[in-house]
Amino acid sequence: MLIKLLKTSIKVEVTRSLCLGHSNCEVMNFEAGSEVIMSAINIPDMVTVVKHHNLKVVPWDISIETTEPKLDLLPSLITSHTVAILVAHIFGKWCDMDPIIDVAQSYNLPVIEDCAESFCGFDVIGNPRSDLVLFSFGVIKFSTAFGGAIAKIKDESVYKKMLEVYGTYRVQGHGEFLKKIFKYYLVYLILLPFSEKILISAARFFGIDHKAMAVQMLRGFPDQMTQRIKMRPSSALLQMLRERLEGFSKSDFETGQVKGDYVRMRLPEEAQMVGMKAIINNYWLFPILVESPDTVLSVLNALGVDAYRGATQLNIIEPETSPNSDDPMTPIDPSYPSEARYLIDHVVYLPVNKKVPFHVLNKICNAVKEAIRLSKDSPKVRIQSKL
Ligand SMILES: Cc1ncc(COP(=O)(O)O)c(C=O)c1O
């Protein structure tokens, strides 16, 4: 069924795309110390999985305009130790893979596409020339099934070996899946505007940060991650995934696009947009870059806009051997992912999605204008929360 849905002959489905990356590393059995070039923004767990296999991660800077890794840098990052290139399509935007694969193939290197954040239906399912394409259906993803991931694997023998490895992993119990659903339902209740007000008062009384608590609950497998990701899905999860994929509605998805575009057109110029020149510009997250992100964030929160900086785990991948940047005499390393650094240092995520009504989107745009204006007036602006 999933095969038909993804219009491909080869697939594996698992509980997390991290698990797929893990089993792929096991199968490829790269020599310890080999290098994997990764686009410089991803979640830390992805780096942990690669490092767990004694591989070195080489970050590859990305462009803020497109979110694509910078093609011209690629040849300078490839060494005799490079064994794979991993491109992440972040924030729901898609990178143009063909030029990257052309370079990779000229060095005989496999290409992995991390599409965890970019599922948008069955018209775009990764480049057929990529060796491994990973989709995630974890919580907060487009078409979430509260877990589950799909891989497209180009090479039949790699697919068979991955299936063998994967066959040794234990199957998730129904109870575990049910527990997860209850947990996410609780998070959903915590974040409802109605319950939020009651909770905020209670949390303040007990000195608890209720949003941090919700984020913590959303993050799966915090401890012993590399062990715990080795898990196959329960039949309940597979059924859920099947229903979510069968029920995928393009028009419903496009409502999110309309809302994203609506906000994009109304934001002030000082709010720099991310990935606007991406070949496919979907809005899984809605990042903007501002001069004083912490001040802008606190003003937005005070104005009742639930913008955030830390809720997503996306972060820069720092080079393993970074020069001491505190020393002004240290020459700038041309391969340092400085654009990725700038993005992470200046990003604020706006709460824009298909469910947000237009009048609230207007409020968000006005609040961003106000927050930027105030942040310019005084770096130390203090606003009392209206919540
Ligand atoms: C870019 C990226 N890669 C990989 C993953 C991991 O996906 P999963 O939770 O299915 O393991 C995520 C999840 O948030 C992600 O955002």
UniProtKB/TrEMBL annotation:
<protein>
    <submittedName>
        <fullName>GDPPS-like protein</fullName>
    </submittedName>
</protein>
<dbReference type="InterPro" id="IPR000653">
    <property type="entry name" value="DegT/StrS_aminotransferase"/>
</dbReference>
<dbReference type="InterPro" id="IPR015424">
    <property type="entry name" value="PyrdxlP-dep_Trfase"/>
</dbReference>
<dbReference type="Pfam" id="PF01041">
    <property type="entry name" value="DegT_DnrJ_EryC1"/>
</dbReference>
<dbReference type="InterPro" id="IPR015421">
    <property type="entry name" value="PyrdxlP-dep_Trfase_major"/>
</dbReference>
